[in-house]
Amino acid sequence: MRRIPAWIVILLVALGIFLTIVGWHEHHHVGYVPFGLGVIWILFGLSCAPRMWANEPGRHGSH
Q1: Nearest to 9 by CA among 54, 59, 62, 57
Q2: 6-58: per-residue pLDDT in tens?
Q3: Whole-angstrom Cα distance, residue 9 to residue 42?
Q4: Mind spelling out the 3-state secondary structure of the chain?
């Protein structure tokens, strides 16, 4: 698999944090769904983080 650029992972986590904060402050109007989605989004972004440091095939002698 290919390496994921760091800016994508940072953007995913930042969007998750934003969604979590807004979801928490607005939970009286919209319920807890945005807050829950924000938490899931953060976990998804963090699960992608190890791919930032993965070795790409064909680089540095690895196959």
Answers
A1: 54
A2: 888 889 899 999 999 998 998 888 888 889 999 998 998 888 888 777 776 66
A3: 10
A4: CCCCCHHHHHHHHHHHHHHHHHHHHCHHHHCCHHHHHHHHHHHHHHHHHHHHHCCCCCCCCCC
Q: How far, in Å, CA of 49 to CA of 53, rounded?
A: 8
Distance between CA atoms of residues 8 and 48, nearest Å: 9
Q: How far apart are CA 48 and CA 39, in angstroms?
A: 15
